[in-house]
Amino acid sequence: MAHVEELPFEILSTIFALLYGLLKEQHKHPADSYAFELLQVLLVCSRWNSIASQTPSLWTLAHVGTDQGSAERASRTIARSGNLPLNINFLSLRDNVSVVDSAVAALKFLSPHASRWRSLSIPCLVPTLVELISCLSLPNLVDLVLVPRTARDAEYSYHGICIRAPNLQTLLSQCSPGVLFIGNQRPRLKILEAREVWGSEYWLRVLFGAGQDTLQELVIRTEDHRVCLAEQSPFVDHNGDRIFCERLSALITLEVSGGYFLDWRCIWFTEMPCLKHLVIKVEAHPEPNAEAHSLPPFETLESLSITKKTSFSMKAAVRFLLTRTPNITKLSLKDYSHPVDDSGKPDWRVSVLLEEELDSSTPLFCKRLEELDLSGGVIPRSVLGELMDFREPVIKRVLGHNPGPKPSSS
């Protein structure tokens, strides 16, 4: 077996590229700063350093900071990355937004290669940077991340960054309204995450309309109960045609999170014929009203996850949702509103699954339930055992709790 120092250039280069690829898979977004995790390997010896410098796939991340070395790193990225797609990360400007000269200098090296940009992460409200990027054409940009400069900035809306990115697929915007597309050339997104959407409903509906046959994952975060996404109003596309968002035909996952008493129409604001996973994370949800009863059944839904952290009761809302989700196989009801105890007090989650079904020999809803997660608090073993017995043999496991031995029949 050859010693590692005897391995040829091609093999070591391939090993480094594979290692780099594994690191990328561990990060949620390609613009995350994973390049520095290779330093310990690349600094082993001069030969390894030389091989790494000639392996283009190791140099596809341009991490632009506020230090004086940003321009040099950007130049090195361009020189060593060949013609591979680039991931551009400006997020460190959040630490010292008053120092943008180095970022502007780095951008001068990166801008001529804008057609190679695959992902871009940038803080909002950095006018000089935003203006320069708005002048670029980004035909191959796939992922865009916008974050507030500071926690306080997240509380305010701003006019957004204007870009030309017709092939954008993923948009993660923590700023409202986020992104405006030059010439009304709105992309057909696959993944959209928008935080604090109140006041930006029209912007969202426009994106829904453009991606109504491509959008697969949607995350909506808001602290304002006045958010309403159900209103149907047309928008004009780049051809001058009036477009309505009639349905999200490809949507698989919907997550809604935020404050108190969100509008019921936040979880069903248009037709979603392929929806499989619904996640709700709120402080409280209103009891069923006329709007709720107008919602159609979620026939295609396979999993439902509800998380709450306050003492507001969600029992009625959860019970109603379960009557609208007849085919789910996974149910998660997480309640972190009270200290964990084993006092034996009835748990509202178990009663929702039992109290209306005790007079029947079979469950009245969630008949296909195979997996149940009741994290938060401790369910008394006797009650949990009763629930498992009632739902056998369909239910296969209960997560978050260990029911222990089933109570004796005697």
Please explain how this structure is put together.
By secondary structure, the chain is of the alpha/beta class. 24% of the residues lie in helices and 18% in strands. The chain is built from eleven helices and 17 strands. It has helices at residues 9-25, 39-42, 46-53, 70-80, 101-110, 127-134, 201-210, 290-293, 315-323, 348-354, 381-391; strands at residues 61-63, 86-89, 117-123, 143-147, 161-163, 170-173, 179-181, 191-195, 217-222, 235-236, 242-243, 253-258, 277-281, 303-308, 330-335, 371-373, 397-399. It has a 13-stranded parallel beta sheet. Helix 11 (381-391) links the parallel strand 16 (371-373) and strand 17 (397-399). Helix 4 runs parallel beside helix 5 (101-110) and helix 9 (315-323) runs parallel beside helix 10 (348-354). The chain is globular. The model is unreliable at 402-410 (pLDDT under 50).
Strands, total number: 17
Q: What's the story with the biggest beta sheet?
A: 13 strands, parallel
How large a portion of the residues is in β-strands, by DSSP E? 15-25%
Q: Distance between the terminal alpha carbons, to the nearest Å? A: 68 Å
Shape: globular
Helicity range: 10-25%
- Neighbour order of strands in the largest sheet: 1-2-3-4-6-8-9-12-13-14-15-16-17
Query: What does the average pLDDT come to?
Result: 78
Compressed to H and E, one letter per element, the order equals: HHHEHEHEHEEEEEHEEEEEHEHEHEHE
Count every helix, treating DSSP H or I runs of 4 or more residues as helices. 11
What is the rounded Rg? 26 Å
The poorly predicted ranges are: 402-410
Structural class given helices, strands, pairing?
alpha/beta
